[in-house]
């Protein structure tokens, strides 16, 4: 029997009515924030949300405020029909799909300024505008949908830490859940931006995961952290990547660490391959 398509809300009054309807029987509500171009990683988040909550809302909004003028906002993949088919199959209850004028009406003048994990000298070093845009839009999504839980993938690890801290600091009443990164069979982390990779670059891309796994193995064996990280970085650049960073950080605070004793430790990286910028991380 075919599944029923989720409700779709595109205005705030429609969203409020729909969410009130979902909550009518004291149901718990989960939110999966996305920018669309959904892949199996997103659907894994939806399925996790359905296991943890009675009803699930998925937002699809390509957020202009987290793109710099030099970045790919205009070209970012938009695949509405495919997204809706995947969400119907997964069993999502409601899709929140506002346009930019609904999210940022004329005269909009308020932003959430983030510090702590947002100033860890990782993504913020290369994209200083990014976490302010993310925190503001996610803060709005949390107050619009008022979910009990919100689900984010660990692939965007710094983002997960920023959003978790924001929800806690602002008493938003939302429990932020991080979910394990979903990977292709060859180890490449699933990402909407993988569609930008040329066939040759796609064949090279799994080197990132291999380098992280090799580095983690050597760290666990007790080798010197600085030496091991340099070896991993050399493996990545030798494959043709331009490396932005490849670092070991504390898994909770994102503070720099100099040995496994400072842990728990997370390996975090960002690198460009051709015109595509990829990010990834693993726990050690």
Automatic annotation (TrEMBL):
Chief location of this protein within or outside the cell: cytoplasm
Binding site for (R)-pantoate: 66, 159
Record EC number: 6.3.2.1
Broadest EC class assigned to this enzyme: ligase
Keywords, sorted A to Z: ATP-binding, Cytoplasm, Ligase, Nucleotide-binding, Pantothenate biosynthesis
Any Pfam family the entry gives: Pantoate_ligase
Coiled-coil residue spans: none
Residue positions of the active site: 42
Domain of life, per lineage: Bacteria
GO molecular function, one term: pantoate-beta-alanine ligase activity
Residue numbers binding ATP: 35-42, 153-156, 182, 190-193
SUPFAM superfamilies the UniProt entry points to: Nucleotidylyl transferase (SSF52374)
UniProt catalytic activity: (R)-pantoate + beta-alanine + ATP = (R)-pantothenate + AMP + diphosphate + H(+)
Binding-site list for beta-alanine: 66
Localization per record: Cytoplasm
InterPro entries from the UniProt entry: Pantoate_ligase, Pantoate_ligase_C, Rossmann-like_a/b/a_fold
Pathway membership, UniProt: Cofactor biosynthesis; (R)-pantothenate biosynthesis; (R)-pantothenate from (R)-pantoate and beta-alanine: step 1/1
Misc remark: The reaction proceeds by a bi uni uni bi ping pong mechanism.
Subunit: Homodimer.
PANTHER family linked: CYTIDYLATE KINASE/PANTOATE-BETA-ALANINE LIGASE, PANTOATE--BETA-ALANINE LIGASE
Family, per entry: Belongs to the pantothenate synthetase family.
Described function: Catalyzes the condensation of pantoate with beta-alanine in an ATP-dependent reaction via a pantoyl-adenylate intermediate.
Name of the protein described by the UniProt record: Pantothenate synthetase
């Amino acid at each position: 029997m075919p599944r029923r398509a989720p409700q779709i809300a595109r205005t705030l009054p429609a969203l409020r009515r729909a969410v009130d309807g979902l909550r009518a029987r004291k149901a718990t509500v989960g939110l999966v924030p996305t920018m669309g171009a959904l892949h199996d990683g997103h659907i894994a988040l939806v399925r996790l949300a359905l296991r943890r909550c009675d009803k699930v809302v998925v937002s699809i909004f390509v957020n202009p405020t987290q793109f710099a003028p030099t970045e790919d906002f205009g070209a970012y993949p938009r695949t509405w029909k495919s997204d809706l088919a995947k969400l119907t199959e997964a069993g999502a209850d409601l899709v929140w799909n506002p346009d930019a004028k609904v999210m940022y009406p004329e005269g909009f003048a308020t932003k959430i300024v983030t510090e702590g994990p947002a100033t860890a000298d990782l993504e913020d070093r290369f994209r200083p505008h990014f976490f302010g845009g993310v925190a503001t839009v996610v803060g709005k999504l949390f107050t619009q949908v008022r979910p009990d839980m919100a689900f984010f993938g660990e692939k965007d690890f710094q983002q997960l830490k920023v959003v978790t801290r924001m929800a806690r600091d602002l008493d938003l009443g939302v429990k932020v859940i991080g979910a394990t990164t979903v990977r292709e069979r060859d180890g490449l982390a699933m990402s909407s931006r993988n569609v930008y990779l040329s066939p040759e670059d796609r064949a090279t891309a799994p080197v990132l995961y291999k380098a992280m796994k090799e580095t983690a193995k050597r760290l666990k064996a007790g080798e010197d952290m600085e030496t091991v990280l340099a070896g991993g970085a050399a493996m990545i650049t030798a494959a043709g990547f331009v490396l932005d960073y490849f670092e070991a950080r504390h898994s909770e605070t994102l503070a720099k660490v100099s040995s496994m004793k400072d842990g728990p430790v997370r390996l975090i990286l960002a690198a460009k391959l051709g015109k595509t910028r990829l990010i990834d991380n693993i726990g050690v």
